[in-house]
Amino acid sequence: MAEKKKDKQLSGVQKAALVLLSLGEQVASQVLKHLKTEEIKKLGLEMSNLRHIDRKVTEEVLKEFNAQFQDEEALLVTGDEYLKRLLPSAIGSDKASEVFKSIEKEKEKVPFKNLRDMDARVLANFLKTEHPQTVALVIVHLGEEKASQVLSYLPEPLQFEVITRITSLDTIPSDVIKEVDEALEQELLSMGELHQVLGGVQRAAEILNRCDRRTADRVLQALEEADAELAEKVRKLMFVFEDLVAVPDQGIRELLKEVDNKDLVIALKTASEDLKQKIFKNLSKRAAQMLEEDLAVLGPVRLSEVEEAQQRILEVTRRLEREGRIVLVSGEGGDAFV
């Protein structure tokens, strides 16, 4: 298929590649001798991707270099063929082979790469008007974590439709995937710049969740003084160690399988009696007895060490939530010795 681009749509590297294609092998090889390997790779990749170029586009580009385009026809030689003939005379056969292999590797485009780098909410908003089959095809290429995030931001009816189609997806021809990828990329370009979602209440809560408790408390207190309603929204989205008391017993048992016993002992140092009992009742009688004994003989521990142990357990908790093995219910959320 002919590739037609206006001059203003060509990048500097694309224009340089077009000029080299127009110069002829002998002259172009002399030019390449004065370039660095990385520069040759960049030019070579663009040359390899060029096919039939409109004469007017070529003329516009050559005018920038104060040259006159003489041929009345479009360039019909493919970049791949031209490059294979050109590079050996410019940099030698061995080096040319290495450069060409590198170019071929660069051309192996990862499907939906640009979409993978988008914020999940932005991507969901972009995809929600697409056909469910297209959305399903994109989502299966995102990786499980990103895919689950995008799915959660899609409208509920579309969520069901997409999952249904994913279950029936089989082998998809690579040219179909490429066609969908290119079409979506063109849509993105036509929409202009899409802004990434960097903040928001949820993001603030996630950040505070990963801070030590004293820092989080100080920030929330200051936020409450400035905007009590906003502070409450953030607090409700946070999940702190004491909120484990509201996790169903099955979830607690899943968590106890994953956490380090030493971390558990230290983390429970400042825990409420309710949380301790919650933990004890989800252990075997022998394991609960040993944990109680460890807590009884535990000496003074720095508060920072307790908070670090609690954070490590919360990290495991959040991972289990992502895996669907636990359901979280958020609540309100010089070293001291405790």
From TrEMBL:
Keywords: Bacterial flagellum, Cell membrane, Cell projection, Chemotaxis, Cilium, Flagellar rotation, Flagellum, Membrane. The keyword Ion transport does not apply. It is found in: Bacterial flagellum basal body; Cell membrane. Residues 222-328 form the Flagellar motor switch protein FliG C-terminal domain. Gene3D superfamilies: 1.10.220.30. It is a peripheral membrane protein. Residues 121-192 form the Flagellar motor switch protein FliG middle domain. GO terms for molecular function: cytoskeletal motor activity. Residues 9-112 form the Flagellar motor switch protein FliG N-terminal domain. One of its GO terms (cellular component) is bacterial-type flagellum basal body. One of its GO terms (biological process) is bacterial-type flagellum-dependent cell motility. InterPro entries: Flg_Motor_Flig, Flg_Motor_Flig_C, FliG_a-hlx, FliG_M, FliG_N. Belongs to the FliG family. FliG is one of three proteins (FliG, FliN, FliM) that forms the rotor-mounted switch complex (C ring), located at the base of the basal body. This complex interacts with the CheY and CheZ chemotaxis proteins, in addition to contacting components of the motor that determine the direction of flagellar rotation. This is Flagellar motor switch protein FliG.
